[in-house]
Each structure stands twice: as structure tokens, then as C-alpha cells.
Amino acid sequence: MSDQEKEPPRKTPEVSGVDLARQALAAAREQARARGNAAGGRKRQQQPGLRSGARADGRDPMPLMAALDRLRTERGWEMPMAVAGVMERWPEIVGPEIAAHCEPERYEDRELVVRCDSSAWAAQLKLLAPQLVARLNADLGQGTVRVILVRGPGGRPKGYGPWRAPGSSGPGDTYG
């Protein structure tokens, strides 16, 4: 008896659909590698900035307002720009009578500092402050303005001029 006759014939295992799919994938990968090597194996590297291509990207021209909106969001300028808009629209927000006597000076750490031209207007604005905070937060977004700090007259003394007496310290109001 020969060696082949002593061993029983082996059964070939049945090939499932998953195994066939794996074999087909391996063959496709091998063909792709062969095509890549036949073409020289190097990929064309596009140098940045040379051409835009057919699809839109960040280098394409855009309308001015869209560019400004993109710049504002990228730099995180939404809040400062909104507050600057409020300072410009101060008469619309508080009304012309209050705006004639009180003006916003600065905005820092969610606090709006407002300077009034007399102690009477400062006291009046202190009473109206909660309503103004609610109105500003409705306009800018909740939590933007936490408190309004009211300052009375008597800030820096104005410079000397033809209508100013030497040594005067500003308005003669008694705020404090």
C-alpha cells in the first residue's frame, strides 16, 4: 500500500458567503496595490494655495457681511460687538429722556457702568436698573448683563478753558 492509500481522503471544508467575500476583498486589494506600483507608486501632491478646485472651500470669495460674521464667530467677538451695539442704541433702549442725562461708560465682567449728569438722575436710574437689566438681557441674551452700576457726576475734572475757573473740580452737584 502506498502512503496515499493509508490516509483517508480529506474533506474540503464548505466555503461560506463570508469567506468568499473576504477572498474577493483580498483579491481587490492586491489588484489595487499592483495598479499603484505600475503607475510609479507615487501620489500627486497638491501644493496648498495653488488652485481652489471645483468645490467651495475657505479660500473662495464671499460677501462682506458673511466674511464679517465668520470673523466675529472665529474670534469670539459676539458679546463685545453686541454690547457695543447696545451702547450705540442706548437712547432707543432707555428712552430719549434718560439718555439725555445718563450714558453708558463701559461694560466689564457682565457689569454695565452708567454715568449720570446729576445725583437726581443717578437715583432715578438706580430705581430703574432691574427693569433695564431685564430689557438688556432680552435684547442681548440671558445673563449678558448682571448688574448696572450707576455713577453720579463728578468724574474727572474737565480741562481748563475760557469758561472754566482755575482750581474748579467739575460740576457743583453733591452726589455721593
List the main descriptive attributes of the protein structure presented here.
single chain, 176 residues, mainly alpha, 3-stranded mixed beta sheet, 7 helices, 10% strand
Could you characterize what this model shows?
It is a single chain. This protein is mostly helical and 176 residues long. The chain contains 7 helices and 3 strands, in the order H-H-H-H-H-H-E-E-H-E. The chain has helices spanning 3-6, 17-38, 64-75, 78-88, 90-94, 96-101, 119-140, and strands at 102-108, 111-116, 147-151. Strands 1-2-3 form a 3-stranded mixed sheet. A hairpin with a 2-residue loop joins strand 1 and strand 2. The longest helix has 22 residues, at 17-38. The chain is elongated and about 125 Å long.
Number of DSSP strand runs: 3
Question: What is Rg?
Answer: 38 Å
Low-confidence stretches: none
The order of strands across the largest sheet is 1-2-3
Give the helices and strands as they follow along the chain.
HHHHHHEEHE
* Structural class by SSE content: mainly alpha
Anisotropy-based shape: elongated
Approximate strand percentage: 5-15%
Write down the overall mean pLDDT.
Answer: 76
Distance between the termini: 122 Å
Please, how many helices?
A: 7
Helix share bin: 40-55%
Could you give a short account of the major beta sheet? 3 strands, mixed
